[in-house]
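Note to self: keep these together.
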Amino acid sequence: MCHPHRVKQLKFIDINKKDYPKAILELQIYTFRLLRYLASLNRHRHIFKQLFIPRLLQQFIDIENFNKTLNAYKKLVDDFNQIEPEDLLCMQETLQQSAENFYMQNTIKKIGNYEILEQIGKGAFGSVYLCRLGGNFYAIKQINDVETLQYREVQIHLELNHPNIVKLYECFIHEHSLCLVIEYIKGMNVQELIKLMNEKNQQIDEENVWKILIDLLSVLRYLHFDKNIVHRDLNPANIMVDSSYSIKICDFGLAKHFQEDIINNSFVGTLIYTCPQIVENKAYSEKADVWALGCVLYEMLQQKPAFQSANPLMLAKKIVQLEYEPINQGIYSNELINIVQLCLQKEEDKRPSVNELLEMISLKMVILMDTIKQEKDDLKSEFQDLQSKINDQLYETKKEQQEPGLQVWNIFQKLLQLSLHDYKTLDAKNQYLIEQFRRKISKPDNDINIQTELTKLTSLSKEFISYLPKITYEQLFFIIETECKSQQI
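Structure:
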């Protein structure tokens, strides 16, 4: 990419200076097309999120996967050429960091027994690395300043086992740093989601807000009532969300066991999500998490924090006096707005518990479960139709073709099982190829015959698959077999 601020540093050979603008534009378009192709392969997506400012990122994402049309990238290039110098500097720093990660990857550094692949995060606490051990991937959070209290509280996370909590596998000391080996999550956090929707001038759909709320209440019920734990630092940056709006809570460094007869009055957490009791240095309970939940919901609905001020004292005053703007009417239901208002009750005895909130939204939970069940039923019905089609074709196969027919049936069964399998455990590129092939043969047209396609697959044809990007039937067959072995199918 060549921004106008960098044009003077660019040199073309055998091109007249009067043709420089056209040459630069073409170079930019081809570069962005290459980057979009790489992003389409679902590799290193976090780098693209860091590289582009939000407005450009959304334009970049909106271009279809594997789009080869040069005109599709023209507006993206025009907007790129208009970004401010400070944004350009940030992009340059990200590229430099990526280059350092590439160097690190090729020098094979390690943290303990884990091979470092690249750095995926950095902050005042330390750094986060994508690592590998055997064939599995992990995120390792390396904390520079190790405190005995901090190390002890991390042990709480090791006790937890919930589908909406990021798993902590182990922790150890490496070169005077505390290292937390946690589940590697692909996606974004709620803070990034809010920022992205704001840049697009869109709201998060209410149905998706309910999904996030139900998952959060499920986690908090588990923490408060099953484990007697208060999180104490629930905020949008600590909530990971995937494309289906399922969430996982991370960062339990401030979590603490509590008892009903023990007074908690230590100041912890992020101030703008902190309840009035903590701000006033009064006793507080697990309902501090309910207040934080209300702050998170408010921010999803309004796309800004409930309490804001550059001055910490003024911010504390606003929290204690409940000075926040009312939620805009007409976008979200009164039921959802009421949940936020209840969570932001100043007095703890008026603030509902997690169980009371779950009782209030029981109908929403039933509707969500019905939706999930319907989606599973639809998927099951689709596969049954496919099985019926292939059974009909196999039945018509001649006796002398019974052995090849059996191979076709076996590969078809594997396709179905991989499609039903948890996608999070599959290689992203392999997932895309397998799913695209399955969908194409599931709805055959005049040019596609399911029996023919599967036969080419099992016979290891070296012919390129016309509707997939430069891959042969033989290559796809081995991809399917490899994934089946890795998933123990």
